[in-house]
Amino acid sequence: MSKGYGVIRIPNNQSCPNCNGAFKRVILKSASNIAYRCPKCLTVPCRYYLDIHHKGERVRIFSDGQGKPLDTFQRAVDLLSHIRYEIENHIFDSSKYKKSEQKEFYCSIKLDEYLEYKINSLAPSYQADFKRYIRIAKEFFNTKDVREMRKVDIINYQRYLQQNFSLSNKSIKNIMDVFKSFLNYLKNDLEIISVVPKFPDIDIEIKPFKWLSQEDQIKLFELVPDKHKPIFAFLMLHGCRPSEARALKCKNVDLQNHTITISATFSGSIYREKRKGKKSRFITIPIHSELYGYIADRVENNLPEAFIFVNPNTGKFYCENSLRIIWNMIRKEAGIDNSLRLYDATRHSFASNLVNSGSTIYKVSKLLGHSSVKMTEKYAHSNIESLRIDIQKLSLNRQQTVVRGVVGEKK
Predict the structure, then answer these.
(1) Rounded Cα gap, residues 337 and 92, in angstroms
(2) CATH code for the domain of 284
(3) Which of 73, 210, 227, 246 could form a disulfide with 312 if both were Cys (CB 3.0 to 4.6 A apart)?
(4) What is the dihedral of CA 54, 55, 56, 57, to 10 degrees?
């Protein structure tokens, strides 16, 4: 190379694999450098390194920025050309090419650090999926230097997921989102990278939410065994998530003001003093009059840490599986297929029925504990019959009569 940035050399202990003779230097005008070859067998070395002099420092580079060894002369020429570009543009960082320091920036190493940093803040029910997403990223990126991450790497990662796993677009988006949050961690927390590459948009088919009218809810509620009616009534009349209803304690109730504060949830079988959602806060909602008697009795006759809803079969809080078993029994007895979840029959239906009865999206959003009205809009489904009544408020016949009246007056 010109300008004295560096030269290509071979390790001193390398010799011809056929005759064990020494490699000789060969001047290559086209490459403006020195190549090596066995004069007898015409074989070439299988290892090269760059001898770089930069700002008074001598750096020997045996692999590229991704840790791949310089096993061909052409690879060494390409890397030397790239380093020349970096030096001329004042972006050369020798640590990227030093093996001991390269390893520190391997994507697999940083992903392990990110996993350790993040795992304890995640809901226990999500931790297994998060670990799997990290493992997939490690397998793909491996020794890729995080400082060299480019948009093309992100595109290739998405193709890798599409071609090697039987995943829906939603699952692929979840995996990509975790990797994007990892890169943001490198940028904002560690300040290792300055820019996060642009991620491609992934189209996700949004399935319409299912819900029940009040009439259908009443019919289903009649099928609920009496001993389990309190928790099902609470879910249907308050729109609370099942995991949050299971976590309610007597200490969360204010009997004087007839309110209950939702501040905790269950993640699987683990009780957490935090509602679901990264930005979620506790919410205080009114207690429905039909549930007040039951809740007041629980509060007045139990310690503050006692759960509001206790499974009479176990004497303990309702676990996720037991609630699912009860729901499936009710659903089958009603002749409803398994596509209708308990979540649909309670939370989704709660929002839809309130909107259909005239409540504003803003009020429903407050009751559901959403951080924005936009989140609520996808839960609230308009009843076609109420829409039919609404559109009947519009009429072209009346307009036509008015027009005729005006014309008649002019006559």
Answers:
(1) 63
(2) 1.10.443.10
(3) 227
(4) -50
Q: Number of C-alpha atoms within 13 angstroms, CB side, residue 55?
A: 7
CA distance 239 to 230: 14
Of 46, 66, 98, the residue that ends a domain is 98
Residue 128 sits in a domain whose CATH number is 1.10.150.130
| 111 and 34, same domain (yes or no) | no
- 3-state SS, residue 200: coil
User: For 242-254, what is the mean pLDDT?
Assistant: 95
Domains in the chain, number: 3
Are both 365 and 347 inside the same structural domain? yes
Alpha-carbon gap, residue 142 to 66, rounded angstroms: 9
Enclosing domain of residue 163: 106-189
367-381: per-residue pLDDT in tens?
A: 888 877 777 776 655
Strand (E) positions, 215-315? 253-254, 259-262, 265-267, 270-272, 283-286, 310-311
If asked whether residues 338 and 260 sit together in one domain, one would say: yes
Q: Is the pLDDT of residue 15 over 80?
A: yes
Q: Does 382 score more than 60 pLDDT?
A: no
Residues 323 and 342 in one domain: yes
DSSP one-letter code for 319: P
State whether 88 and 149 are in the same domain. no
Paired tokens of 142: 């491996």
* Alpha helix (H) residue ranges in 90-222: 99-102, 107-118, 124-141, 151-164, 169-184, 214-222
Q: Note the pTM of the prediction, 2 decimals.
A: 0.59
State the pLDDT at residue 137: 97
